Protein: 30S ribosomal protein S1
Amino acid sequence: MAQNASMEEFEALLNESLEIDTPTEGSVVKGKVIAIEAGQAIIDVGYKMEGRVELKEFANPGEAPEVEIGDEVEVFLRSVENARGEAVISRDLARREAAWDRLEEAYGKEERVEGAIFGRVKGGFTVDLGGAVAFLPGSQVDVRPVRDAGPLMGLKQPFQILKMDRRRGNIVVSRRAILEESRAEQRAEVIANLAEGQNVDGVVKNITEYGAFVDLGGVDGLLHVTDMAWRRVNDPREILSIGETVKVQVIKINKETHRISLGMKQLQEDPWDTVIAKYPLGSVHQGRVTNITDYGAFVELEAGVEGLVHVSEMSWTKKNVHPGKIVSTSQEVDVMVLEIDTAKRRVSLGLKQTQRNPWEVFAESHPPGTEVEGEVKNITEFGLFVGLPGDIDGMVHLSDLTWEGRGEDVIGDYRKGDIVRAQVTEVDTDKERISLSIKAVGGDPYAETLGGVKRGSVITVEVTKIEDGGIEVDYEGMKSFIRRSDLARDRADQRPERFGVGDKVDVRVTNVDSKNHRIGLSIKAREIAEEKEAVEQYGSSDSGASLGDILGAALKGDD
Structure:
């Protein structure tokens, strides 16, 4: 019985000894390098166990393995024994476990960790953090997009852990956060030494369509395109290039946002200080068209001095056309200074003022009575527009189309493109109007007829048409119309139907319009005038004679 008890005690002690001395699989153990052969390090992990580890597991990314015989190292025990009776161990897993412990502690304290970028993956890069592999997104590499990450590969540098999940084995780091932090400290220091109005040297780092970013020694300032030169700058690349050292003036510093506005033109003399003296009102200068808009064209008189030629001041004759059809960009043109506003830094220019008013030129060479020939440009309800020398138009009113009939009846005989001859009747240079007359060409066929007709005279006309409102009559080729109320003195006789076509009628001339070739006629006025004359010659009703007696005597006297 005593012997059996001692055997049980021995077995228990042996088992306890084995449990204490034999390492647990899946744990990190210490070992000693006892040999290096065939690219592997043979490590004695104790407990009469040896294992093999590839030499590359002892190297940092991009570096040679650092391991020698006799080195004590930590390895991860995957399995106590494999098919060859060796322990299955890993240096990488051991470093990873140690690294995760270290990184979790650093993450909790929001401390920086050191690592090296060693590979490129979709969306970013891989970083070795001393055994643990982290993901570095492309947006977190630098404060600005990095086109070539080659110089950063394999370089040990600090990173900030953004998030980590040990269970999933995910770590996300940022290099940008480190740069921004140090950059903010550097910016604050540099900005503290800057003052508005100070002139400094800087290096052009980046150029955009609206300006350029200039490095002032750790802090960037914006040089806006409008502050590069007094003249208009369409593209900053016209005067700047990346890497160029430039002298700039600090215009404004925002202490809160750390934004700095810079200027180059402020270091040059302002050309507007001498504008009034150099460009007096009414003077003509040559300039270059720099920009064309819907409302006009900008013309540069000199570097930094630009004026606007409004569309209304571009041409005497071309109305309602786009300025681009009159001038072109970079074209050299002569302009007249119309107005200067130094407060708003604006100059109003005129292009047409450098040329003579074509209506004045036409008036000098074509006084009233001159005959011209031109093309019918347009036909309206009130007349024709005819093209004239100087790229201007004249108008022939309906009343100036023909001597015979009405203008409304003959305007349909004309077509655009017809060549017509007309006589200049009036030129109004202020209103830019030219009046023409087609019917005046060849003279006035009724001038002689009208010359023999005077107001108050009695003439004989022929009835040509009977209408409800009166009768149409002809006098030596001239048509006239006698209204119903003028057909007789007595109302009962004011009937158009009592006349017949071809009848000869004596009428009194009440009006003569030589310009429009019209004469006013009245039978009633003739009768009243005859009655008055008879009364004056043969007495009056006051002497005892009746009106019938007087008229009878007058008629007998006429016989």
Summary: The first helix runs from residue 2 to 21. The CA atoms of residues 316 and 412 lie 31 Å apart.
